[in-house]
């Protein structure tokens, strides 16, 4: 979509570029495009630029291992829904299932080829984690999607997705394995159907910063440890955009549970030096040793 040159000159594409390895090339291209009336690649970039310019109350942070591009109110509701106790129970159970799956393949599969063994372990690990995920979600009040149909749509899913509601906001919660941290999970019919409900999270030109109507599809992402068999490297909470192209939210589980802010706290003022509590008298005459002769000109005998 063409972006008007008279507006495009006010923005820097560099601040809107997604996290990627070609940052240097992107910056060079940005310098050539800004102010020239060039076309941006999609409508999302234009909307993000205008939202940044007008300063709406949304969270837009992209640093290593963290992506936040959703309204701060939505993020608070999500933290109230996925409580710390709930996520800790999931984390402990899924790590235990991953170790159990490794032991089963190692001790009972009889597979000698390491590649086949890793493939079998991956399949078994996800199925075992998915079953424990289903049990714990039900224990914490999650409702399995009725008939596998996403609410208010005709989209059908084939994985156990659970709906949680906080106030008037609904969240559809699912599980996905990723090859490494910060990577999008592989597409399948269930996840493609799930992300369709996230269309209202796409930033619009005239957004007011108010919460949006409609459910939000959220995933618990699990990345295996590539160096230690049977271990999990990272778990994270992720929300994928409706086009399944990037995250609008990605937070490692520990950071999500702690509820850390985007900006670091201001540094504390330097401590004041300690005081002894002794107050000196003002106007004290300097000490003059007795062996020094007194100045006759300043000597006052009281007879003058």
How would you describe this protein?
The longest helix has 26 residues, at 114-139. It contains eight helices and eight strands. By secondary structure, it is α+β, with helices and mostly antiparallel strands. Mean pLDDT is 76; it is low at 1-60 and 261-267. The chain has an eight-stranded mixed sheet with strand order 1-2-8-7-6-5-4-3.
> So how many helices?
8
Annotation, overall tally of beta strands:
8
Shape: elongated
Assembly context of the chains: single chain
SSE ordering: HHHEEHHHEEEHEEEH
Beta percentage is 15-25%
Computed CA radius of gyration, to the nearest angstrom:
31 Å
Low-pLDDT segments: 1-60, 261-267
Instruction: Please report the distance between the alpha carbons of the first and last residues.
Output: 101 Å
Taking strands numbered 1, 2, ... along the chain, how are they ordered across the largest sheet? 1-2-8-7-6-5-4-3
Percentage of residues assigned to helices:
25-40%
Please describe the biggest sheet, giving its number of strands, its sense, and whether it closes into a barrel.
8 strands, mixed
**Rounded mean pLDDT score:** 76
Structural class: alpha+beta
């Amino acid at each position: 979509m063409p972006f008007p040159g008279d507006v495009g000159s006010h923005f820097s594409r560099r601040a809107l570029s997604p996290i990627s390895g070609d940052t240097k090339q992107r910056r060079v291209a940005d310098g050539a495009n800004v102010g020239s009336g060039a076309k941006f690649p999609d409508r999302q970039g234009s909307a993000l630029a205008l939202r940044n310019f007008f300063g709406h109350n949304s969270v837009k942070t992209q640093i290593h291992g963290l992506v936040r591009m959703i309204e701060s109110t939505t993020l608070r509701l999500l933290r109230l829904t996925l409580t710390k106790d709930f996520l800790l129970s999931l984390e402990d159970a899924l790590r235990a299932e991953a170790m159990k799956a490794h032991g089963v393949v190692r001790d009972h599969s009889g597979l000698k080829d390491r590649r086949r063994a890793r493939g079998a372990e991956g399949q078994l690990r996800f199925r075992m984690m998915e079953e424990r995920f289903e049990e714990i979600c039900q224990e914490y009040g999650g409702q399995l999607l009725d008939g596998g149909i996403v609410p208010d749509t005709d989209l059908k899913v084939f994985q156990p997705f659970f709906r949680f509601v906080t106030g008037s906001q609904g969240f559809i919660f699912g599980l996905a394995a990723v090859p490494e941290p910060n990577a999008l999970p592989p597409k399948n019919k269930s996840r493609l159907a799930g992300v369709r409900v996230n269309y209202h999270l796409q930033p619009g030109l005239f957004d007011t910063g108010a919460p949006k109507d409609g459910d939000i599809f959220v995933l618990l992402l699990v990345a295996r440890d590539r160096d230690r068999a049977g271990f999990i490297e990272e778990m994270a909470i992720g929300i994928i955009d409706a086009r399944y192209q990037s995250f609008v939210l990605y937070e490692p589980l520990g950071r999500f549970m702690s509820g850390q802010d985007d900006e670091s706290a201001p540094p504390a003022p330097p401590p004041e030096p300690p005081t002894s509590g002794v107050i000196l008298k003002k106007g004290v005459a300097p000490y003059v040793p007795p062996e020094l002769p007194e100045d006759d000109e300043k000597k006052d005998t009281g007879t003058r």
